[in-house]
Specification:
The complex is a heterodimer of chains A (291) and B (662). Chain A is an alpha/beta fold. Chain A folds into two domains: 129 residues, 3-Layer(aba) Sandwich (Rossmann fold), CATH 3.40.50; 138 residues, Rossmann fold, CATH 3.40.50. Helix content of chain A is 41%, strand content 20%. About 2% of the residues of chain A have low confidence. Chain B folds into two domains: 39 residues, no CATH class; 605 residues, Maltoporin, Chain A (Beta Barrel). Chain B contains seven helices and 31 strands. Chain B is globular, with a radius of gyration of 27 Å. Chain B starts with a helix and ends with a strand. The chains are: A alpha/beta (291), B mainly beta (662). Chains A and B meet through helix 2, helix 3, helix 7, helix 8 and helix 9 of A and helix 1 and helix 3 of B.
């Protein structure tokens, strides 16, 4: 699908932008639809395609999702922006494609799906000011663990960590962790948090009156107390700004965290735990629009 | 387990990467979950749905007391009925060592007929007396997650017979235990209890099993034969093939041998009765779109009680008497989210009760009850919550009753909530009240109307989380009409009695709970209730001769059937990391139940000291507790209906309560 966003007269100068989606559905499609609206009246010729189709000729390629990221990276485009990718995944992929990662080339950028550690701690502090200890579980220590330890210590949070070797050890680890923690902070570790385990994890946190802090709206819907996350629309807004900057300077900024974000709170769970907490809008304002 | 992630990678790899290009994409990379965005984009079904969440007190349409595991432990109690001493306005007495009498607001009598009792949604008051036999419910006190006591009628939410209140016991989830727990209680009056709990939480299947034994010699007196010896087994399993569906199965069995008999009474000789009780329950919970939820619940309860030497009234020879009750119940319930501010629960159910008791009923009877209910919770504004609901019920005795309820909760500030509510509820006559055929004693004429209550209350709830303080108080006025009572029909001495709707009683008073937590290590709960009753004769006795003698006697006793004041205090302090001390004080003014002997006022102090060892939550931990009940030897008299046991006192007793987890 090729969309001409400009009158024919100015098309010659327009930036050829290709957006490659991992799937033509869900968050990927929401992202490309939002981006398309934001780029109206910009000097851009936009082509939206999915990862199974041949890569169109483009000055700048946006890869949405890891599957698209791999395919686009292999095609060695002139410049690329990866979106809807976790920081750890993007980092590992860049190790496979060292040419992309050269910081001086200014031809690669990414907007991570992850929220910065500081923002997650801001969320906990804003929602539950009395929290002192935060529990985390992982199968292998995540890259961000160092940052989490440092920032938690700076804010006088006690960080309780449990490394969980197998799914059979999950229950025991969770029980001991919940006894010593005020909240459980979920990490994007699919060995620990997945469709099979989320039920018992949520039931155990509720039973122990230790709320779960998620990292997506899906967690909040399931029963996590709250989460801070960025929507595809918000990532699209940030992408549009990067595209604009690229049009003007032909330089891509360095890889970055999402700038805009949402806060979601499960009010039913909050009420049931007798937590008098602020509204999602108040919490978002309190966390502020910091990078 | 990781299907969504693996699929996308297998898909990407197979479709796009020729074998040679795996140099670009090492296998370990393709299998590494941390690289995928799926964790962020994944959608889950609603796990903590409305039916799994405890309604906060500030939003509940009724006054409610919650007894959780920590309180159960701190109380030192080893029987379920004793726990209700921690609820304001509730009466707990003992007919003998194995027959507690539990009542709320004057519903108190040997058969606590005017409260609904549910265990995981399973109604356990059974015909023919419409009573709960607390000793043979297949449930171990250590398997209770929490008890919610709804103070006031709540038919719209809990179904029939919640005339004056609802005891809603929620047991531990199948996934709550991973390992083995052993407990042992050993102490005075022959107390020797044992329980083993084992469980396993898995990805798709969780289960827990309890095997327990309870034993004691009752009051330990020579006047009463009231020892007990009970074995029980429970299984709870939960199968959750997907996040959206869970199937919960429960099985329970209890076998109890108990002493009965009072010394010197020819018609109540010392003997052992047996009671076996079993149940099967299956619950399917299905999460629908948008947070809606479907719940299908089926259970079957069976109880068999045999008294080998039952002496029928005014008969010369005793007989073996068997009472069998059998209940099937099926209910479908749906919770619908009607927008952000409105939620509705509706459902329908049916129940079949079979009862056989040759010594008291002409023939076995089967009754079929059907019900339809709906309940709406509407958040009118952020500070106003309205609960409106009703139950339509056909009680199987030819009556169709509508029990509506309306409650408004107004959050003056987030800390202060005022609640006003009114509701109507009915109690279906017990099988025995409607159909008794005990020659020379009770012969029912039938045709009874259900008892009806109209309840009005105003409540206040103050939650000061930063100060660790919660206040919960209410004033109430419950008008109970058409109270069913024995009706002296014949001309000689009133016997045989029938049953008739004879009285109305107005129960009113105020009650409250204060909870204060001064640190993570210490807290106190104080319950207080003041109760009053006004009674009048509203029905017509079959034989007017007895109005002055019998009915007037009831009128004189009735106001004394609620204690002027009663309450409890439970104080818990973690003295050291591994040392917990708790003290409880229970008190109650003198009382004279309908048909029972007057009881003296009660002041009782229970103490518990517990030393724990090992790491909490890990194998090898446990505790040893020393519990003293009635520590200062206030020998208050027990509930009694016969002069021979009139002055029997509950004496001091002590036991060791040890638990070990591995």
């Amino acid at each position: 699908m090729i969309i001409c966003l400009l009158p024919a007269s100015s098309r010659a100068a327009a930036l050829k932008l290709a957006v490659v989606l991992s799937e033509q559905e869900g968050a990927y499609l929401e992202y490309s639809n939002a981006l398309e609206k934001l780029l109206v009246n910009k000097s851009v010729t936009l082509t939206v395609t999915d990862a199974d189709k041949p890569l169109p000729d483009a000055d700048l390629v946006i890869a949405a999702g890891m599957k698209a990221f791999i395919i686009v990276a292999r095609a060695k485009p002139a410049a690329m922006l990866a979106v809807l990718v976790p920081k750890e995944g993007a980092g590992k992929l860049l190790n496979e494609f060292p040419a992309l990662a050269k910081s001086d080339s200014n031809t690669f950028s990414a907007i991570y799906l992850d929220q910065p550690v500081r923002r997650q701690l801001d969320l906990i502090a804003a929602v539950l000011p009395r929290v002192r200890s935060i529990g985390v579980m992982y199968s292998t220590p995540p890259k961000e663990l160092g940052a989490l330890r440092t920032k938690a210590a700076e804010r006088k949070f006690e960080l309780n960590e449990r490394s969980v070797a197998s799914s059979s050890a999950l229950h025991t680890a969770l029980q001991t962790l919940l006894l010593s923690s005020d909240v459980l902070l979920a990490l994007p570790d699919a060995e620990i948090y997945n469709a099979s385990t989320i039920r018992n994890i949520l039931l155990a946190t509720y039973r122990n009156k230790v709320p779960l802090i998620g990292f997506s709206s899906g967690y909040v819907k399931a029963g996590a107390l709250c989460a801070v996350f960025s929507t595809p629309e918000q990532i699209a807004w940030q992408s549009a700004n990067i595209v604009q900057e690229y049009i003007e300077t032909r330089v891509l900024p360095s890889a970055q965290y999402p700038k805009q974000f949402e806060v979601s709170i499960n009010e039913q769970v909050a009420r049931s735990l007798a937590l008098n907490i602020k509204s999602a809008a108040e919490v978002r304002d309190e966390i502020g629009i910091t990078p | 387990m990781f299907c969504s992630r693996i699929n996308i990678w297998q898909y990407a790899a197979s479709l796009l990467l020729p074998v040679a290009s795996f140099a670009f994409m090492p296998l370990s990379f393709a299998e590494d979950g941390s690289v995928s965005e799926q964790a962020y984009l994944q959608d889950f079904p609603v796990v903590l749905s409305a039916s799994r969440l405890l309604q906060p007190l500030s939003e509940a349409p009724n006054a409610m007391s919650v007894i959780d595991r920590n309180m159960i432990k701190a109380s030192g109690f080893r029987t379920i009925a004793d726990l209700f001493r921690l609820v304001p306005g509730m009466y707990v007495g003992n007919l003998n060592g194995h027959t507690p009498v539990v009542g709320y607001h004057g519903s108190t009598e040997e058969y606590s007929r005017r409260m609904q009792v549910l265990i995981d949604g399973r109604s356990v008051y059974l015909p023919p007396f419409s009573t709960v036999d607390w000793e043979d419910i297949p449930l171990n006190i250590e398997d209770i997650e929490r008890v919610e006591v709804v103070r006031g009628p709540a038919a719209a939410s809990f179904g029939a017979n919640s005339l004056q209140g609802v005891i809603n016991i929620i047991t531990r989830d199948a996934a709550s235990l991973n390992g083995t727990e052993l407990s042992m209680i050993k102490g005075g009056e022959g107390v020797a209890d044992l329980a083993a709990h084992l469980g396993q939480a898995g990805e798709k299947m969780d289960y827990r099993i309890t095997l327990a034994h309870r034993e004691d010699s009752g009051y330990g007196s020579t006047v009463m034969n009231d020892g007990k010896f009970t074995n029980q087994a429970n299984l709870r399993a939960n199968f959750h093939p997907s996040g959206a569906d869970s199937f919960d199965f429960q099985l329970g069995y209890s076998d109890s041998t108990r002493g009965l008999g009072i010394a010197g009474k020819a018609d109540d000789v010392f003997r052992n009765v047996t009671a076996t009780s079993s149940f099967q329950q299956g619950t399917w919970l299905h999460a629908q779109q948008n947070g809606d939820e479907l719940k299908l619940n089926y259970f079957h309860i069976s109880r068999n009680y045999i008294d080998p030497i039952y002496s029928p009234p005014v008969a010369l020879t005793s007989v073996a008497a068997q009472t069998v009750a059998d209940r099937h119940d099926l209910e479908l319930q749906q919770t619908i989210q009607l927008g952000k501010t409105n939620r509705m629960v509706w459902g329908a159910g049916g129940r079949s009760d079979y009862v056989s008791s040759p010594v008291s009923l002409t023939a076995p009877y089967t009754f079929t009850q059907t019900r339809l209910f709906a309940h709406d919770e509407w958040r009118v504004s952020p500070s106003v919550l309205m609960n409106a609901g009703a139950m339509l019920e056909n009680d199987g005795f030819g009556h169709t009753n509508t029990s509506p309820r309306l409650a408004v909760n107004y959050h003056v500030t987030p800390q202060h909530t005022v609640r006003a509510s009114t509701s109507v509820a009915y109690r279906t006559p017990a099988t025995l009240e409607e159909k008794a055929n005990i020659p020379n004693a009770y012969v029912s004429l039938g045709g009874l109307r259900p008892e009806k209550t109209l309840s009005k209350e105003i409540g206040y709830l103050g939650e000061f989380n930063s100060a660790g303080l919660t206040l919960d108080a209410r004033v109430y006025n419950d008008q109970v009409e058409d109270i069913i009572s024995a009706d002296p029909a014949a001309t000689i001495d009133g016997r045989p009695y029938g049953f008739a709707n004879l009285y109305a009683t107005n129960y009113y008073g105020y009650e409250g709970t204060m909870k204060y937590r001064w640190s993570d290590r210490g807290n106190i709960m104080v319950n207080l209730a003041r109760q009053f009753a006004r009674c009048e004769i509203t029905g017509t006795a079959t034989n007017p001769l007895f109005v002055s003698m019998y009915l007037q006697g009831y009128m004189d006793e009735c106001p004394l059937s609620v204690p002027d004041y009663s309450g409890s205090i439970l104080l818990t302090q973690q003295v050291k990391q591994d040392l917990q001390v708790s003290a409880a004080y229970y008190f109650q003014a003198g009382i004279k139940m309908i048909g029972a002997v007057a009881q003296s006022s009660m002041h009782r102090v229970d103490l518990r000291v517990a030393q724990s060892f090992g790491n909490p939550g890990r194998a090898g931990n446990g505790d040893v507790a020393f519990v003293v009940q009635n520590a200062f030897q206030d020998d208050y008299t027990k509930y009694s209906t016969t002069l021979e046991t009139n002055n029997m006192a509950y004496k001091r007793r002590a036991y060791i309560y040890a638990t070990y987890n591995f």
